[in-house]
Q: What sequence folds into this?
């Protein structure tokens, strides 16, 4: 308030409020807009009153941090006990390129690794697959075999670092590669810790990187969860993700509702497969987006914990407290980054990160200013990491748990988020559940509608995005962009060719045959996958034999 | 000039995809010149067998077509697919064709696929689809699948274009049966309950069967109701067989000839309509000028008099200025 | 009784020259599954009165060019967020050239560095759009580019 913007901005249509203007008396009754609403379209009142908040009672709806239903946080001490994990997602080029970047990040104070794989890897295809032309190493690191995985973690002690891997469709066998590296390093499976994203439902809904139809993918997920519980107890075998749903254009409400619905679907499948809810529930984790509507995001995180705790306790009958906890990783919103005036992205991401911290996240990735144009440079990543460090050490927001608890507006909005999510649960039930909803295009249509509505608001200037439809500069400053060497693809293809010559061909064929045989039964596939990767069967070869059993998925496009 | 048209027609006959695609655009755009091309192509047409695939959105038409392409091709033909979608009456725009599930299959089998929008012009859709079929026929495509997404009028139109109409339903489409446009549900030559793995497939079959009273009427052809699963390919073989049987039936019973005669009649009718429509447009464009508008505004003439004068055989400018009869 | 005042209307406005919709192929090429932008653009172009064919995900350049030819589109709008644009887009251009398709506009949108955009434009891409582009601007561009004079009847001279 009270600031007039310099003249080189192109804002002429809107009046900037200023205390200097004598007719300010009008402001007491007149408001700038007819309607104030959140990014999800929830109408926001002029102010909030004690009567608006906590109508359900403190113990029932909030309770102290660390107490059911965990609205205020899953731990009693939260950041007073331990800061969140700085986990900057990264990966590009060859495994060697990325290995170097990881070592740099660790030297700069990063406390957890987060692997970004390239598209061929995400789709379960080898670097030399003709459909991968131009894609190898481009938006992540390419890993086609155990050999690549060995290079990726060369010199990094897996027993001392936690690793998060954004991998879904081929998650089971990529994880098997990681486990094989751990074993070779002598890191005990009982001790290693990390996450595989392994969330195929949001792939069908939003991110669109799949291999098989939904059912066999669901089976593989149940297999990994089962295997994790029994053999790799500190691992999080799934990270149920709203991030990509949001990036695809959903609202905060949709992100939350669809993600929790996905989570419930996984729990259902695990229970149906005979797993005990209290054995696997504590290994589940979540991954949310933090967008620009500050309070709505905070309300979203708080509502998420409450809904999940209630669902796990009441719907699925989990007995252990650990089974009720919703742990989550947060990444700031990539879709809020703009190409114009890229420096402004630092500000956006910092506010989004603050919302995540006030919402009680367990780990955080802050996007870099140049990511509307490509992968971030080292310098840009450093700013992101520093944003986290400033938040952790300089802002004082870590001194108390859930500092916004009890704020009338925040509590009201948290309740509203919960109500809206329940409405969506209802709708999902009406379309027959999550899988029929995917097949009918229900989620995809909801997201596409929200994305289009959002874009129209921007196009019509009903929503101002700085540098995009207002406050423009004649010339947007150029920034440095990370160049991925074109040699990565060649290198990877050559590595793969060489591996195919060197490995024990007969063993590979045998292991793949065993795998295919097992796939036709209902047994857990992890042991066969593990044996196959250890024999250096490639990512694509494994996908290939499984496709013969499971079939391939084709989407009906919903626009 | 004439040579250019001949050249174009030759390219179409040779099967040049660009030439075909542009010829279809020409008829789709309702260009008067399209008749020059159609006249050249008409004698070159072999017999084309047209299969309509109709059903509500989401019943699996596209994936069914993807499954049909290969077995139909085994009989040694060239296959083309025309997918028709509705044009938005408000913006004139359209989102066309769910090419997604089909594409790899079509690409592999060298199928020609074209999406067309209804465009809402007078008799326009069926006329342009018919002409597109003629063009594809001249280019050597002997089996043409016409898919209509959308519903209502689009699907009714398709009845009069094709030889064999496949009507697709899914087990839970009880409501769809209720709401299906009169005249369409009865028009199916083969009924398909797709997604047969879902609950209630058999029951739907019973319901449909009793709703249609299939044993009656239908001139000796009792439309079968088949269960298919276009994802797994279950029931496709039976469907292909039923299609061949229907084709034979059309041939042996003489119904096929009757249908073709009816199709040609409609085609001529549509071209008459188009010609008249074009003339009317031309007249309007020519005569609805500032002066006439002023006359209308002053009440010196009425829209009805203008219409009457413009279509009168002895029409002249003089007629228009007659203010009162 | 109120009667519309026609006199203010320019006569050309009432002439019903049948306008032919612009056909556009919105193409997702490569393994990239980010379809938000493609879908938003598809809808925006539809709402601007164009006929939009959406390719669906994970298409190859060959499939895209094949589609463009069969659908006889005036514009191919390629959406890419995978970083593979410097391989896949030139391949599309090259295939179009091979098929002697000259009057199709190729537009590209996505996460594309400015330097790459310059090179793509030199290769024949008409325009490159970055994140934060308004759809209204893209619609205007297409309307402008497609109204630029082109060969009338596109029949090859023998």
A:
């Amino acid at each position: 308030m009270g600031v007039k913007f310099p003249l080189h901005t192109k804002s002429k249509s809107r009046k900037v409020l200023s205390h200097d203007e004598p007719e300010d008396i009008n402001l007491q009754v007149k408001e700038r807009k007819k309607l104030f609403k959140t990014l999800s379209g929830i109408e926001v009142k002029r102010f909030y009153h004690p009567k608006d908040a906590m109508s359900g009672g403190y113990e029932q709806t909030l309770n102290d941090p660390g107490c059911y239903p965990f609205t205020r946080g899953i731990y009693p001490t939260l950041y007073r006990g331990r800061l969140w994990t700085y986990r900057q997602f990264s990966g590009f080029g060859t495994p060697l390129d990325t290995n170097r970047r990881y070592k740099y990040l660790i030297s700069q104070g990063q406390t957890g690794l987060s692997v970004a794989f390239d598209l061929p890897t995400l789709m379960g295809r080898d670097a030399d697959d003709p459909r991968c032309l131009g894609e190898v190493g481009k938006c992540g690191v390419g890993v086609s075999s155990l050999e690549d995985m060995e290079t990726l973690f060369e010199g990094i002690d897996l027993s001392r670092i936690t690793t998060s891997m954004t991998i879904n469709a081929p998650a089971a066998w990529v994880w098997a590669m990681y486990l094989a590296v751990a074993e070779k390093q002598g890191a005990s499976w009982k001790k290693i810790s990390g996450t595989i994203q392994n969330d195929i439902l949001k792939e069908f809904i939003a991110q669109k990187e799949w291999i098989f139809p939904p059912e066999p993918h669901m089976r593989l997920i149940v297999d990994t969860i089962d295997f994790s519980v029994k053999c790799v107890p500190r691992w999080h075998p799934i990270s149920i993700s709203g991030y990509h749903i949001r990036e695809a254009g959903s609202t905060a409400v949709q992100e939350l509702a669809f993600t929790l619905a996905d989570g419930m679907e996984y729990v259902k499948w695990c229970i149906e497969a005979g797993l005990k809810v209290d054995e696997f529930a504590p290994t589940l984790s979540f991954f949310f987006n933090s967008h620009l509507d500050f309070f709505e995001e905070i309300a979203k995180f708080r509502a998420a914990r409450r809904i999940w705790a209630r669902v796990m306790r009441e719907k699925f009958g989990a007995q252990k407290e650990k089974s009720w906890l919703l742990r989550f990783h947060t990444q700031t919103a990539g879709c809020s980054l703009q190409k114009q005036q890229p420096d402004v992205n630092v500000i956006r991401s910092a506010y989004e990160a603050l919302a995540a911290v006030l919402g009680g996240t367990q780990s955080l990735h802050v996007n870099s200013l140049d990511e509307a144009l490509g992968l971030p440079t080292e310098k840009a990543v450093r700013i992101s990491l520093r944003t986290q460090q400033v938040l952790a050490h300089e802002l004082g927001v870590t001194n108390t748990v859930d500092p916004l608890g009890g704020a009338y507006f925040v509590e009201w909005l948290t309740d509203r988020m919960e109500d809206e999510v329940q409405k969506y649960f209802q709708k999902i039930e009406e379309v027959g559940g999550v899988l029929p909803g995917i097949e009918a295009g229900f989620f995809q249509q909801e997201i596409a509608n929200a994305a289009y509505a959002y874009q129209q608001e921007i196009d019509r200037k009903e929503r101002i995005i700085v540098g995009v439809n207002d406050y423009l500069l004649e010339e947007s400053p150029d920034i440095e962009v990370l160049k991925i060497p074109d040699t990565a693809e060649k290198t990877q293809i050559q590595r793969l060719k060489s591996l195919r010559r060197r490995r024990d061909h007969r063993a590979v064929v045998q292991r793949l045959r065993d795998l295919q045989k097992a796939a036709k039964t209902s047994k857990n596939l992890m042991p066969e996958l593990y044996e196959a990767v250890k024999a250096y069967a490639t990512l694509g070869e494994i996908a290939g034999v499984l496709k013969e059993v499971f079939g391939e998925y084709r989407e009906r496009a919903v626009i | 000039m004439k040579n250019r048209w001949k050249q174009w027609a030759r390219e179409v006959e040779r099967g040049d995809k660009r030439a075909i695609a542009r010829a279809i655009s020409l008829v789709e755009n309702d260009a008067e010149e399209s008749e020059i091309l159609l006249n050249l192509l008409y004698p070159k047409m072999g017999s084309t067998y047209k299969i309509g695939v109709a059903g509500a959105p989401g019943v699996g038409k596209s994936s069914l077509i993807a499954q049909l392409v290969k077995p139909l091709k085994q009989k040694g033909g060239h296959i083309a697919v025309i997918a028709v979608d509705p044009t938005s009456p408000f913006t004139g725009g359209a989102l066309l064709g769910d090419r997604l599930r089909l594409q790899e299959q079509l690409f592999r089998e060298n199928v020609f696929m074209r999406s067309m929008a209804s465009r809402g012009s007078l008799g326009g859709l069926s006329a342009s689809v018919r002409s597109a079929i003629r063009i594809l026929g001249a280019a050597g495509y002997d089996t043409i699948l016409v898919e209509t997404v959308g519903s209502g009028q689009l699907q009714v139109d398709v009845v009069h274009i094709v030889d064999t109409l496949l009507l697709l339903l899914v087990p839970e489409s009880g409501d769809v049966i209720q709401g299906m446009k009169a005249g369409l549900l009865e028009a199916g030559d083969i009924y398909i309950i797709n997604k047969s793995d879902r609950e209630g497939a058999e029951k739907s079959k019973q319901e449909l069967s009793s709703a249609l009273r299939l044993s009656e009427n239908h001139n000796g052809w009792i439309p079968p109701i088949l269960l298919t699963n276009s994802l797994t390919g279950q029931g496709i073989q039976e469907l292909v067989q039923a299609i061949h049987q229907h084709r034979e039936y059309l041939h042996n019973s003489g119904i096929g000839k009757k249908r073709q005669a009816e199709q040609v009649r409609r085609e001529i009718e549509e071209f008459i309509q188009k010609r008249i429509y074009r003339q009317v447009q031309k007249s309007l464009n020519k005569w609805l000028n500032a002066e006439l508008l002023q006359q209308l505004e002053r009440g010196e003439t009425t829209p009805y008099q203008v219409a009457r004068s413009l279509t009168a055989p002895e029409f002249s400018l003089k007629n228009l200025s007659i203010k009162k009869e | 009784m109120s009667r519309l005042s026609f006199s203010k209307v320019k006569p050309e406005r009432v002439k019903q020259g049948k306008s032919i919709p612009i056909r556009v192929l919105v193409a997702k090429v490569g393994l990239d599954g980010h379809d938000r932008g493609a879908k938003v653009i598809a809808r925006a172009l539809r709402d601007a009165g164009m006929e939009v064919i959406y390719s669906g995900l994970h298409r190859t350049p060959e499939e895209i060019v094949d589609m463009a030819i069969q659908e006889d589109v005036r514009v191919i709008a390629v959406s890419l967020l995978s970083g593979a644009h410097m391989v896949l887009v030139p391949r599309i251009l090259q295939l179009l050239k091979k098929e002697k398709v000259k009057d199709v506009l190729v537009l590209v949108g996505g996460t594309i560095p400015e330097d790459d955009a310059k090179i793509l434009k030199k290769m024949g891409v008409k325009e490159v759009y970055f994140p934060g582009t308004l759809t209204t601007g893209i619609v205007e561009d297409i309307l402008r580019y497609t109204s630029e004079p082109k060969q009338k009847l596109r029949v090859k001279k023998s």
Notes: The interface with chain A takes residues 30-36, 39-40, 42-44, 54, 56-58, 60, 81-88, 91, 111-115, 130-132, 134-136 of chain C (CB under 8 Å). Strands of chain C lie at 23-28, 51-54, 75-80, 105-110, 127-129.
